[in-house]
Amino acid sequence: MPEESIVGNKIVVDCSASPYELFSPEFINNHLKALTTLLNDKIRGIRYEEEIVIEFDEEKTQILREYINVIRELEVLSLKPETFGRPDDDGYPKRKKLFHHVYEELFQSPILALSSLADYVEPVPERGIFIDSYKRFMLYRQDAMEAIKKTQFYLLVQKCGDARQVFISFAGLRSFKFVQSLVLDLPKNAKLVDSPNSAYGLEFGIMTKVYDMPGSEVRLYVHENPLIDALDDRLQKLLKEEIVRGMEESEHIETLNYELLYEEKTREYRRHFLDQASLQGIVLTEEQAQAMAHEAASWSVGLGAPIENMSLDQKNITDIYIDSENSPIYIEHAKFGLCHTLWRYNRDILEHVAKNIMAVTKEVRRFDEKNPIADVFLTRLNMRCHMQGPPATFGEIQLALRLMKRTPFTYAQYVDNYSMSAFSAGYDDLMVSLGCSEAVLGTKGVGKTSFTAAKIISIGSKKRILPIQDIEEIPTKAYRKRGFHIGTMRVQSSDLETGSQKELSLIAMASAALRMGEACLVINEIRSRLAVQGIINLLNTQPGIFVLYNFHAQSMRDVQDRLELVFGVPAASMFATDRYSFLRKIRFGRKGPLYRIFAKCYESDIEEHKFVDIFTLKRGISIEKSTIACNFLDMPEANAWSLAGVSIGAIAKKLKLKYIPPALQRRSDETGISPEQYILQAFFKGRVYSDMVTAAREKNNELLMEMDFVLKCSAVSNKLLRDYEDADGSVDYSKIDAAWESEFKKLVAEETA
Fold it and tell me: With bands split at pLDDT 50, 70 and 90, how would you rate the model's confidence at 498?
């Protein structure tokens, strides 16, 4: 039962102490009973403290006070024996039972209580001695009915349908149309963000809007669904019935195959709704039927309509968070940062969602009291789902959902988003193609996995690639479709307590993979002591091995301290990794967009036993005024965000190095190609990516920066390098400039035809 207390002139209700969902019928019943002892003329408001804080002002409190006073009057009457007449009257027990019954019903619904009073029938007593008490009781009954009818609460219940809806409307909430959970109402003072990106459409007729909230630092992310809202009442009822039935049936399905079941259920629902509409003579368009089918499947075998609809917004939403049941869902928006939403999931819905998520693992992994943490990748939504439950939490279920691109990011997209400068992208492409081992570092959510996946494009189909991961975040299928030699390996989670004995450890799998032949190992996220020690040992015992791996760290000192103090690995072992790249999240101003940026890069100097600073982010007043400075070159082109149309031949004539990056020097010694030639190649690749960005902006066609077009451009540019290479490995870039310009125009024309 909720704990109500009086603080000043308000009643404060601690809803976290209640076993019932906020404003559920059980909650309201107990709450009204508590108010009969607390609510008086001095009380000016009621405050409900849950995952959110809800305030009832004096006007709403007065409506409840009026109703509570009627309940109190009936209680006083029911406690007086004379109210029911003489005890020896045959009608005495019936009258007493009626008032006690009505008293309890008033806590549920005034309509229910009024109905019981109106339906009460008692014949006139035959003996004259009982007639006065009979008339007096019937008058009390009539007065009670009139008193209930006069209350504003009764009128509101009549209008809204039940007491729950009245409380929900008082709280500025509303119910989901088709499931039992609450939704926040859009605040009256919310204003659409002054930006061309604040309103846009998604599939199934869904409209997305982002609002500013006066007095709040965060924005509000909202969906409108006109196709569903405009449905005929009979169709709305049909949709609700199918959702309820579907959610009940899904509890008995042992294994849900998201790749098949969701689509099958969507088609099944669409056909069913079209058939029913035809039978009932209701006009239903194909577009409406598809929207209804999407809604039904989202609740029955999906993650609920709000999350399923958010997954349609993959260009903008990166993360979705649920801290507990009944806590408003919030998101990380690529353009507007952290945004709140109006949606809440209660415990029943969260448990249903968790079951649907875990079904995709086919019981290889579990989510229960013995396994309170789970990481699952849903291929259907391209979503990583991290879940926590008791005893890892204090009773609630928590979700952190990360939406991944279906195809990997490309260097062109990083240049377009100001995440990399043109030359740093070209140099990174070069070093990956030369097989330099690399650690990608940064804090959580900075984009380490995406950056690592982008590097695989530069490896190309000329090398065997083996991603080793506990969650299928690197989109291996996207590479296989395009001819890459890539075979992913699944390993036990780095968090050992969540792993399964059916899975091998990361180190065991990495060692086994290398026995099968030479390959590039892409290791996504290493966290545990065993994994870190194993990777470092692997790099030190097999020099020259090509490994790309992710690690949580913010600086080289941070890496060293963690290796030595946390994992017990000597700092000298760090030199076995050729490169260390650091990503950062930065923002300009309080409400500026969030940038995930390539902020720092070091290369290992094995002979001097030091780490050489190669690239450094230098912040300006805006992202355009900031630079990713190249520390081994003193020329403006090396720091420019774009190299579109720049003559590489002209750069070659004035190229002068401050020093040669050590990892580049080692590769130069191995291949016999001079470092200067490799640096010019990096400039050329930087121009290639910049030209793609410029073309995409001019043509308003983002596909010109996506994986397929990038691979075509890379193939052509690499062929040009081979065609124009001399016997000593040098290239005349003045000839390549003209050749590339001609080839690129053809590529763009073919792609946009």
Answer: very low
